[in-house]
Write a structure and sequence with these properties.
With 402 residues, the protein is of the alpha+beta class. The protein is built from 15 helices and 14 strands.
């Protein structure tokens, strides 16, 4: 463990979560699951790459935290900066939201920069593991933000990182923006976070948040599900093993529908991984047909004042489709569970998603900040500006997305 001082805040560096107490870390890291000591402890041994856990304190009080990992090669594009900016398939989704001239310019910039992508590694990335969330939380002070950013930069320099980035930052406000801008980072908004703020106590309260026409549609979907003789069950992690095979089939069907190929074994591995991280926090909502067959499921975590959507699947049968089983397990049941348990939010991860937005969800912009040592600054800045423009246009045309 080392310690450096930057102004009033002190930054403590740890090599693993177990080097700091859960109470001390969680007091600094905010109330989210994916920066919690519980989650980070469950993930640390699986990463197999350098990591740093930074804890900010002032006058002995925890005031901020950051998680930093080293990416030495391309990985999951939403978790590392080179892919997030330069991946051809990911950026192609922006073209539909840009005027033709801007879309062509984006393609030209990406084509110019992409051949240099290999030179951008290793990359020091401040990001939450697996949860597609920020790896940074601060109490809002400019001094705290500056101290944590400087500490991240120190670690990046120690690792000889060519690229540094802070991904999917959806809080921190001006303090984070000021600290990162002053240190040469370039901003973009390549992502947004889909959340459902819970402002009701029961089903009538939930329905009351919608205009009349939308309320009728949702009420009909709920009634059709019940009238079809469907059954909903909430199952804790320790009771999921007998049905994991069926859930893997449903998850693989969803992956196939969205062009990722049908891979039941991979879906089973993902389920085992997600359930195994924090089993005490994990449950699944199952939709069962009158014959007892599971036709849709939704795996989620309970932590603090929030529910976290983790994984879902359905079989696209007539039974599932006509009963709106997917919507029941993915949106309506979590809304009611959160209300009954007094939770404030359901977190669906990166969005936006139209079916989520029309059922009460909103999308929060999540900024990312980049410093590419191997790429020319001006074309990178222009590309990042176009990425932000595409995301803004996408959100503005969706209900609840602005």
């Amino acid at each position: 463990m080392g310690m450096t001082s930057v102004g009033l805040p002190q930054i403590h560096r740890f090599g693993a979560p177990e080097e700091v107490s859960a109470a001390r870390w969680n007091a600094a890291a905010g109330k989210g699951l994916y920066l919690s000591h519980e989650w980070l402890s469950s993930m640390h041994d699986r990463r197999g790459r350098p990591a740093a856990y930074l804890l900010a304190e002032r006058d002995g009080e925890p005031v901020g935290a950051a998680v930093l990992v080293l990416a030495d090669r391309p990985g999951f594009v939403l978790q590392e900066p080179v892919g997030l900016v330069l991946d051809e398939q990911l950026r192609a989704t922006d073209h539909a939201d840009l005027p033709a001239g801007e879309a062509s310019r984006m393609t030209a910039l990406r084509d110019r920069l992409a051949p240099m992508a290999a030179e951008c590694y290793p990359a020091a990335v401040c990001v939450g593991p697996v949860g597609l969330t920020a790896g940074l939380h601060i109490g809002g002070s400019h001094e705290i933000a500056a101290a944590l950013v400087d500490a991240v930069d120190e670690v990046a320099a120690e690792w000889q990182a060519v690229t540094s980035a802070f991904l999917h930052v959806d809080d921190g406000g001006n303090a984070v923006e000021k600290a990162l801008t002053a240190r040469g980072y370039l901003p973009a908004t390549p992502s947004s976070r889909a959340v459902l703020p819970v402002r009701w106590r029961d089903l009538p309260g939930y329905l009351g948040t919608f205009p009349s026409l939308r309320r009728k549609v949702i009420r009909k979907e709920l009634q059709v599900y019940d009238a079809a003789g469907m059954r909903t069950e909430i199952v804790p992690a320790d009771r999921l093993r007998p049905v994991t095979g069926r859930l893997a089939v449903l998850a693989a069907l969803v992956q196939e529908k969205y062009g990722n190929g049908y891979d039941e074994e991979a879906s089973r591995g993902t389920l085992d991984f997600l359930v195994g991280r924090c089993p005490d926090l994990t449950s699944a909502i199952l939709a069962e047909s009158p014959s007892g067959e599971i036709v849709a499921f939704h795996l989620f975590y309970r932590y603090g004042g929030r529910l976290y959507s983790a994984f879902a699947g359905q079989d696209y049968s007539e039974t599932a489709r006509r009963s709106f089983a997917h919507f029941r397990v993915l949106y309506y049941e979590p809304a009611l569970i959160a209300a009954a348990e007094g939770r404030e939010l359901v977190d669906y991860g990166l969005g936006p998603r139209l079916d989520h937005l029309v059922r009460g969800g909103v999308s929060k912009r999540a900024a990312s900040w980049f410093r590419f040592g191997a790429l020319p600054r001006e074309p990178v800045a222009e590309l990042l500006s176009l990425i932000t423009s595409a995301q803004d246009r996408r959100l503005e045309r969706l209900p609840g997305g602005g």
